[in-house]
Automatic annotation (TrEMBL):
Family statement drawn from the similarity comment of this UniProt entry: Belongs to the bacterial ribosomal protein bL25 family. CTC subfamily.
UniProt GO MF annotations: 5S rRNA binding; structural constituent of ribosome
Native source organism of the sequence: Aquimarina aggregata
Name of the protein in its database record: Large ribosomal subunit protein bL25
Domain Large ribosomal subunit protein bL25 L25 residues, every copy: 6-91
Composition skew (Acidic residues), residue ranges: 185-195
Amino acid sequence: MKSLTINASQRESVGKKATKALRNAGQVPCVIYGGDTIVHFAAPEIAFKNLVYTPDVHTVVIALDNGTKINAILQDIQFHPVTDKILHIDFVEIFDDKPITMEVPFQTTGNARGVLAGGVLRFNLRRIKVKGLASKLPDVIEGDISNLRIGNKLLVTSLASEDYTILHPDNTVVCMVKTSRTAVADDEDDEEEGGEAPAAEAPAAEA
């Protein structure tokens, strides 16, 4: 998984007055949990642009002005209800030997047979919640939809990997091909030739 570096200043004063002064100066107050001690720091709001305003996920290296570097992941973020400015960010420290939980973006590969026949691909999940070592987690989880016909569903079990554990129930639908007014039978050619239609990636299941 990709990593971003954020240059920051450790802060000693954490009261409301000090926090307000930081925000007035264009700084975002932050905190890192999960280590031996809680670390309070601040960085310019623009430093978080590539971390917050992106569909991608990253681990983060917090490079403090005292020379300390802390590996972490974003845990929670607070925005101003009117201006959408970042008010506060919580991070969790990560370690090479301890698994972490993250939501990784999902994207499809291939062209679904049902879509080529006029169906519509619908997504139930855009991110997959997984647990594993940070060094093993991918930037994106891909799922092959080539064999999905109209009515077929892709389940999270199709995305299993030895590198991480999927934290959704096995029957969770990631995406499916639904019918549309322009849809036609996508296996007519197979039937005409007397051949057996190939099985779908994940057969349709009743709700």
